[in-house]
Specification:
Blueprint lengths: L1 H16 L3 H32 L1
Helix pairs in contact: 1-2
Length: 53
């Protein structure tokens, strides 16, 4: 999941460099959503691992 967030971030940076503002904004928002989903899943698994012990 973090890999896909990074890929969309790189796409956003490249699109912004070439002047494609709409594509860059869309890719950046997708990357942001994927990153926050990754953080939530990471925290849930971390808490579940601590609870099991």
């Amino acid at each position: 999941m973090l890999y896909y967030a990074l890929v969309f971030f790189i796409i956003a940076v490249i699109a912004a460099a070439f002047g494609f503002g709409g594509i860059a904004a869309g890719a950046a928002s997708i990357a942001k959503i994927l990153f926050f989903v990754f953080v939530v899943i990471f925290l849930v698994t971390l808490i579940m691992g601590l609870v099991r012990r």
